[in-house]
Specification:
Its EC number is 3.1.3.25. This protein is α+β, with helices and mostly antiparallel strands. The protein contains seven helices and 15 strands. The chain folds into two domains: 144 residues, Fructose-1,6-Bisphosphatase, subunit A, domain 1 (Fructose-1,6-Bisphosphatase, Chain A, domain 1); 101 residues, D-Maltodextrin-Binding Protein, domain 2 (3-Layer(aba) Sandwich). Helix 4 links the parallel strand 11 and strand 12.
């Protein structure tokens, strides 16, 4: 039996807020791209271990988040910030709006000079992401989206089309317990799985039409908020692991192009 999934319609946001937030977030993303490009593979580790042996912190992580917070405090003084390196401002979870920043998503790749890391910034309200901007320095791309305004890649509009999973790619950022079974079931359906170490870029590949789906578990809000805005505005379906539409799932999530979601969920839930 085929499952039916619909993207949840979110209330519109203030047009002036969207325009201003996009402009400021775009500036910050460009700043971050320049710094990451100049330092990738050459930066100094400040903490070698956080949650696990590849969860590193560098000078660039902290420098970019401090810069982001300074600019946002000046431009949006009433909007608190949640960030990977410096945590949550007071009242961030009860505020009507919050900024969410991951200064370097894919730090292990960044440290090694592997060209797959990103800067992620999102403005979030009670209904989910309002604005999302991802800097992809290795491809010299800035991806930006705002609720109801679609997605642009370096200013060029992006919209995905329905696709089957056969012959496609799924970007996965999964725990060791889940990854082997999911990968085997996808391979049996003639779908490839790629695990490259950046949650933001995994989801972004769906928004760009490069991947048919992305599946993630054990992430944090700053890993995914910006990219989920891109995916939703590009026409992808965003659900939690049970298949319920959710613009910002708090635990497991699946993002898929129309036509691919049922198959991907079946691989996720197979015994």
């Amino acid at each position: 039996m085929s499952l039916q999934h619909e993207t949840r319609r979110l209330p519109p946001a203030d047009p002036g807020l969207l325009s201003r937030a996009l402009e400021v977030a775009g500036r910050l993303a460009n700043d971050a791209a320049e710094v990451i490009t100049a330092t990738a593979g050459r930066d100094r580790l400040t903490d070698t271990v956080k949650a696990h042996p590849f969860d590193w912190v560098t000078d660039t992580d902290r420098t970019l988040e401090r810069h982001t917070r300074r600019v946002l405090a000046a431009e949006f003084p009433q909007v608190p910030v949640l960030g990977e390196e410096y945590g949550a401002d007071e009242g961030v979870h009860s505020a009507p709006l919050r900024w969410v920043v991951d200064p370097v998503d894919g730090t292990a790749n960044y440290v090694s000079g592997f060209p797959w890391c990103a800067y992620s910034l999102a403005l979030v309200d009670a209904h989910g992401p309002v604005v999302g901007v991802i800097a992809d320095p290795s491809r010299a791309q800035i991806y930006a989206a705002a609720r109801g305004r679609g997605v642009r890649a370096n200013g060029v509009p992006v919209r995905i089309a329905p696709r089957p999973v056969v012959g496609g790619l799924v970007c996965a950022e999964l725990s060791l317990e889940r990854a082997p079974g999911f990968t085997a079931r996808a391979a049996a359906a003639h779908t490839g799985v790629r695990v490259l170490g950046s949650a933001a870029l995994a989801i972004t590949q769906v928004a760009l039409g490069h991947a048919v789906a992305a599946v993630l578990d054990r992430y944090r809000e700053w890993d995914v908020a910006g990219a989920l805005c891109l995916a939703a505005e590009a026409g992808a379906v965003v659900v939690d692991a049970r298949g319920n539409p959710d613009p910002l799932p708090s635990e497991d999530l699946v993002v898929a192009v129309p036509g691919a979601l049922d198959a991907v969920l079946s691989w996720w839930h197979a015994p």
